[in-house]
Amino acid sequence: MLQELETTIRNLTDRRLKIADTRLHTTIMKYASEIMRDLTQTEWRTQCNGGLNAGYILCLTGETAKGIGFIEKSLQMHETQKGEYDESTLTILGEIIETLKEFGANKDTISKYEKQVQKQETDNTKDLRKEIAHIEADMECSTGDLNKVYSDGRRAQGILYRQLGEHEQAISHFQKAIEEDTRDWRNETSIENELSIVDSYLEIDDCSAAAQEFMTLMSKLLPNKLKSGDKIPNVFTENYQQFVPYLEKLNMKESLGNMADYVRARLEILKKIILPPSPEEDHKEHWKRTELCTLSRILASYHVSREEYQQASDIYDEAREYLRYQHNLSRRDQAEFAIRAGNTTKARQLVKEDTEEKDSLRTDDDKPFELTNLHLQLGDVETALNTLDKYCETYKQCLISGSYGCVFETRRMQIAIIKAAMGKEKFNEAIERLRKDKQTSNRLNLNNLLQKGRSK
To answer: Which of 215, 309, 335, 348 is the most exposed place for a label (fewest CB within 10 A)?
Structure first.
């Protein structure tokens, strides 16, 4: 999407949308009961996750000392129980520090966790070097498809060297990864490693070498003489969105306009040769429609980069006339174009169609959050919160075992939305009313609700 959900939530602060205290209270109650479920599970990871979120909700409701107690216990549990593939302590410490800063915890308390982060970062550097050595040893002992093993291994080492800030070593290993994969099917190895080399050069401010490397990659993907209306190679169009940021970083923006001209010309030819949808159509028609979709996205993205949002939306409308399945061009993306173009009626219609679209053959984990983003951009806060409620209920029904971690993240997102919509001052007043109102407090009964988890 054009605008990240976090940015949309922050922007709500300027709009001061109305939202009732009861919505905040209901969300906190649901969140607390879900935390309780994790705290009473026998698996340590689930208990740990529940404890971290208990700490968050206690800090939220003014019980900072008790909240830190849950956080400490959960951190100790993670340190003593974690395995090789468990979430890193650095990630958890980052979440803890963010929580404590959000609720104005004592500076000394925050400093204590920040020192732990520094120690973890030092240990992490040692671990990265160990991992590089382990990959080398694993490659020496490997059998089977050695080309792939060595290519993947060199790339993994290159990524680790980049993390260490040793970019010359990283570049060398990315180059070796390309050399090791003699097949380079659909240029997959070349694309990912050449772009990583470009990134490495940019990180050491060698823009000339970065540009040369990028053009080397482009020469592999595009024919020397591409005529207007010719088919653009799939390997280029399918990866085009990866290339756009580099064109901007390397001051090659004029190439965007040139490519848009080729895409526009090819689209006009496709519209003339695509046959109307038919149940018995030749499979070649399917690939023509696929090409039309891909090129329409590219041309729309070009207009978006020029802030020509209405033109981008029109391109999607025109292309859909040739498609069998309307959702092949994202209604959510187009809805955001329409919002930017000032056509909220069109945006709401697209959101409605996308919400009602059901296809059992597709899974779209981002859909609830992208719809939430759009509802918020349209100022429909209640609808956004309801969308997230539905996601939480669906997730809980589908979960067989493990933590409600995704639900917790969603509840915190809902609280952030409510806080931004209310404004910080009114939000704090609402929290204070929740603590003082005996009837609400008894219904929530947060301390009692978490008592069993605290004694574990």
So the answer is: 215
pLDDT recorded at residue 276: 87
CB < 8 Å & 24+ apart, contacts of 160-168 = 160/128, 160/131, 160/132, 160/135, 161/132, 162/196, 162/199, 162/200, 162/203, 163/128, 164/125, 164/128, 164/129, 167/200, 167/201, 167/203, 167/204, 168/204
- pLDDT, one tens digit per residue, over 45-83 is 999 999 999 999 989 988 888 899 999 999 999 999 988
Higher-pLDDT residue of 125, 137: 137
pLDDT tens track for 4-55: 999 999 999 887 778 888 899 899 989 999 999 999 899 999 999 999 999 9
Burial class (CB in 10 A: 0-12, 13-18, 19+), 214: buried
Please give the model's pTM, rounded to 2 decimal places.
Answer: 0.88
Cβ-Cβ contacts under 8 Å for 399 (sequence gap 6 or more): none
pLDDT digit string (tens) for 146-185? 899 999 999 999 999 999 999 999 999 999 999 999 888 8
Q: Mapped to the 3 state alphabet, what secondary structure does the chain carry?
A: CCCCHHHHHHHHHHCCCCCCHHHHHHHHHHHHHHHHHHHCCCCHHHHHHHHHHHHHHHHHCCCHHHHHHHHHHHHHHHHHHCCCCCCCHHHHHHHHHHHHHHCCCCHHHHHHHHHHHHHHHHHHHHHHHHHHHHHHHHHHCCCCCHHHHHHHHHHHHHHHHHHHCCHHHHHHHHHHHHHHCCCCHHHHHHHHHHHHHHHHHHHCCCHHHHHHHHHHHHHHHCCCCCCCCCCCCHHHHCCHHHHHHHHHHCCCCHHHHHHHHHHHHHHHHHHHHCCCCCCCCCHHHHHHHHHHHHHHHHHHHHHHHCCCHHHHHHHHHHHHCCCCCHHHCCHHHHHHHHHHCCCHHHHHHHHHHHHHCCCCCCCCCCHHHHHHHHHHHCCCHHHHHHHHHHHHHHHHHHCCCCCCHHHHHHHHHHHHHHHHHHCHHHHHHHHHHHHHCHHHHHHHCHHHHHHHHHCC
Structure tokens at 198: 């470009």
Per-residue b or e along 290-312, where b marks 16 or more CB atoms closer than 10 Å to that residue's CB: ebbbbbbbbbbbbbbbeebbebb
Q: Among 222, 207, 213, 211, which Cα is nearest to 178's?
A: 213
Instruction: Judge whether residue 445 has pLDDT over 90.
Output: no
CA pair distance 194, 216, nearest whole angstrom: 9
